[in-house]
What we know:
- The complex is a heterotrimer of chains A (301), B (367) and C (252).
- With 301 residues, chain A is mainly α.
- Helices cover 75% and strands 0% of the residues of chain A.
- Chain A has two domains: 13-61; 64-300, MetI-like fold.
- Chain A has helices spanning 13-58, 64-68, 82-113, 118-131, 135-150, 155-179, 183-191, 196-224, 228-231, 251-259, 264-300.
- With 367 residues, chain B is mainly α.
- In chain B, helix 3 (97-103) crosses helix 13 (327-359), helix 4 (123-154) crosses helix 10 and helix 5 (157-172) crosses helix 7.
- The model of chain B is unreliable at 1-47 and 362-367 (pLDDT under 50).
- Chain C has 252 residues and is of the alpha/beta class.
- Chain C has helices at 43-50, 79-85, 101-105, 107-110, 117-130, 134-137, 151-164, 181-194, 207-213, 231-236, 241-247, and strands at residues 5-14, 17-27, 32-36, 60-68, 71-72, 86-89, 169-173, 199-203, 216-221, 224-230.
- In chain C, strands 6-7-8-3-9-10 form a six-stranded mixed β-sheet, sandwiched between helices. A four-stranded antiparallel β-sheet of chain C has the order 2-1-4-5, with helices on one face.
- In chain C, helix 5 (117-130) packs across helix 7 and helix 7 (151-164) packs parallel to helix 8 (181-194).
- The model of chain C has no long low-confidence stretch (mean pLDDT 89).
- The chains are: A mainly alpha (301), B mainly alpha (367), C alpha/beta (252).
- The interface between A and B is large, with 95 and 94 residues.
Amino acid sequence: MSTQPIGTPRPSLQTQISRASTIRRTATNYIVAGLAILATIVVIAPLVAILAYLLFKGASSLNLAFFTHIPAPVGEDGGGMANSIVGSAIILVLASLMGIPIGIAAGVYLAEFGRGKALATAIRFTADVLNGVPSIVMGIAIYSLIVIQQKHFSAFAGGVALAIMMVPTITRTTEEMLATVPHAIREAALGLGVPKWRTVISVSLRTASPGIITGCMLAFARVAGETAPLLFTALGNQFWSLKLNEPIAALPLQIYAYAISPYDEQHRLAWAGALVLILLIMVSVTLVRIFANRGQLKGAS
Amino acid sequence: MSLTPTSPMTDERNPQSTESTSVLPTLPRPPQVSLPGAPDSGSTDPVAPLSPIRAYLNARGSGRIADNTFQAVMLLCALSIFLIVIFIFFILISRSKLTLAAFAFKFFTREAWDPVSGDFGALPFIFGTLATSSLALLMAVPLALGVAIFLTELCPQKLRAPISFLTELLAAIPSVVYGLWAVFVLVPIMRDQLGPFLYKTLGWTGFFEGSNFGVGLLTAGIILAIMILPIISSLTRDIMNAVPNSQREAVLALGATRWEMIRIGVLRNSRIGIVGAVMLGLGRALGETMAVTMVIGNHPNIGKSLFAPANTLASVIAGEFSEATGDLYLSALIEIGLALFLVTIVVNTIARLMVWAVTRGAPARAH
Amino acid sequence: MGVGIQVENLNAWYGTNHTLQDINLHIPANHATALIGPSGCGKSTFVRCLNRMHETNPIARATGVVKMGDLDIYKDASPVEIRRRVGMVFQRPNPFPTMSIYDNVISGLKLNGFRNRRILDETVERSLKSAALWEEVKDDLKKKSGASLSGGQQQRMCIARAIAVDPEVLLMDEPASALDPVSTSKIEDLIFQLKTQYTIVIVTHNMQQAARVAENTGFFLNGKMVEFDSTHKIFTNPSDKRTEDYITGRFG
């Protein structure tokens, strides 16, 4: 203030206060920005750490034996997870065969027939809520329904448990993708005298198909890593089994079993299995991203 | 071909072109003009054969049966979603009849868990669930908000897609893989480094008593926090993006700093939605099974120490279901599953309503 | 060959909005009839009642009698059957984006199960020639997608698609309003040729267009049909003062 020439009025109290508060506000601004960046780093760090660990610990165990052999007897070295990989594939195919058609059909109903109806809103809401139900609850529900009735564990029961997890997800994504189909082309088909069912299949579904396939892949990737629903349905199996009404091995189940076992050898295999599982899921998620972008362009043209 | 209205038409169009006396263009004069009200004959040549196309299309039915069947099948599949929920509810109730009869509501207020003598009470697991979920939220919510703020308001455009992709990858990692990493990386850190550090610095609070083997409430809370982060953060981002730019601009025009703009223009408007996102994260934390089972210590316990082993509703089912001998034991576990089912439905319903209230109009994301 | 349409006491609603009130009208066969009027007067709703597209909207309702020749289109046939006989060209071109030009043109046949390859090929050629598009696309029929053409070409392809099913009536709801002047005049020439084969009803807000292509014109205002007469009379000596106000530009 002493640098001001004589005669100019001194800065008022208000200017002094606002200058201080400006400094405080600017400082706060920068601090918050810093915290936000810090938060992002803290969030990404575990991801990097987990992936790094998986690679580090698991890659060395990925050899041909891993993909072709079944688990070795307890205490022995070697062995692989071939039966788990195949078993997972079988369960996932089962689940997809049951879950994808029902999910797509439900999505078709919501988008093409249920617009504006209260029933459709209720179904949509229920699907969202169902997506949040813990997977272990699904597991014990299917256990109570199928395993107790049949008096044995089975790949089929595991498939059903995963299927009911896929249905709400696929329903919502199918509905959302169908909603992006411009109404004008539906009208074009109806105006030509094409019946409604044919319009839905050959125009709506066909136009939205890239997005719908994306949604199915997302649901597939999500249930591929699920362990809890399979604990009491598919149970797991140390040997080769391809039968649908017997317990079957699955990759996540085997990883869990090995992780909590006391043997180092099995820990090693758990890491390798986790790496394989993660790679499969990441590939699916990335493919989804690529397809989603292409699908958007296609639908918009 | 002329485009101006007053020029005469070409000869093909109008062999009798005349000049018009009004500003309107010359009009074609058709040979006959039908006046309104006079019906005329249908096709000019009723005896002419129909083209094969017309014959084919005329013979096609109305497709009404196919349409109705199709709609019915679609409706049935849509109703299956209701059926799934109802089915789960009824089967869980029917299989937990034994403990429902034996203990009624006291099941959830008793502390006992002795399978041998048939004495069951779920209170320790309720405690474990609440404790781990609260810890997880405490750690995850500020971080998730930070990430959301960074990605929506601060991040340069080019980095936005890769970083958000990375946070979504976090959501794609299966629970069992988180658990595996937690068992072999997090537990030793907790046992050897983090635990002693916390005891030294914060031991006076009483939260860090007792022996520390690396497993326990805190470890489970940490891995849960990592797992629920992506949900809270991506939903919060959607909600923040749903706030119209006019709100941001209005606050900026008043001379606010960027943080103040975020606080007043964006966060204040999306408060309800963010609470909803947090509740969805809570819903996920309540039901998370595998990773928690692997690091929580699997021991029914209620206590102040964060180092103590414990059990959650989900992890007791996962851990003890296969050893459940006796119908009462099984019934107890299934009743716990029923409780988990109902609680997560309630939490998720409230959460979805909140999120929906804020993002109405903006397109939803499927999770 | 075209067929005439008789409309008696047609009323239409969107929810509680009484969009069309007591329309009585006769559309002569093998002529072009234009419907003019200001925005929102109900002319689009009217043509959508002629091919029963109006009822695809869940809150829409219509009463009255519409007869194609001797057929009561609401009582004697299903909507799907009617729409196979009454074609429609929409305001904005709406080709099927996942189909080639060839598939777009014969979509009305293919999606109804028609399989004869030879007739399909002939139909594509005939329809595209009638729509004055054949020369421009004949080499790319199966290679290009329907959506890759320019706006004017897309609309002509939509016209080809509509006439490929050999309808008796062709409804056109402002077919050139989204197009440039060159495309517009091409389409007007088209209509001139087409009306020898089909009965055409064209909705337009462009009075000069109505004057250029149609023998008869109906003037709609606020859901009512104020006047229907030969185009020449409507534009030179209208009976109703409201018609005169509209065509001289006092409103609308």
